[in-house]
């Protein structure tokens, strides 16, 4: 078991005092069988009221309505979690899904819905994904691991400050992308092959990094396999399983689960800059 402390701070700066619109925060770690949230808090530098809700995916959403104008807004969250994920997990995949291609049950097909719908099943991404299928039938988990490990052969990771997510085809054409771009490419490739896949946002913890560089926000993917359920695939680091990952939210696409979104009343020139700081450190009992 690993106990981690997560501190996430987002600061917006403006050239003058502006009115703040409601901000949507998705920052609370998502408790599951391998992750338990011990405590969580949000603090804003500008006074306001916070409302809590669950979205259609069951993610915890905080909506902050601010009551006064400001030239600077800082939103800070702090959490302590316990993680028990195995670094070398064994997945109990149902025998019916051991070999690809397989067919999801009628109920699974219905419930997966948009999670299994490829955006452009006939485009370059579909051809690229099919190239990983060496034979039919082939081992299902090995196929997914090959795609997960193979993306960085075609795409280089780069830090990208621009908002939004590149389309999977753009990422292939540019041969580079951020973690959210790489995850989106993996998801689309999986869907093109008939798998149910979803986007996950949260944090990554690197126990071998320095304290000042031990964690960051991160995006990865999960694929649904009968018997095993949702399996985490992190193509940016070529990892499988939830070890080193702290999930906060999942959705059909990355754009639905950005950590902090909001706006202000004013002109584009009023916006000066944005700073994000994340620290994930292991703590004792």
From TrEMBL:
SUPFAM superfamilies in alphabetical order: Cysteine proteinases
Pfam families linked: Bact_transglu_N, Transglut_core
Domain of life of the source: Bacteria
Stored Gene3D superfamilies: 3.10.620.30
InterPro entries: Bac_transglu_N, Papain-like_cys_pep_sf, Transglutaminase-like
Domain Transglutaminase-like stretches: 171-237
Protein name: Transglutaminase
Native source organism of the sequence: Rhizobium hidalgonense
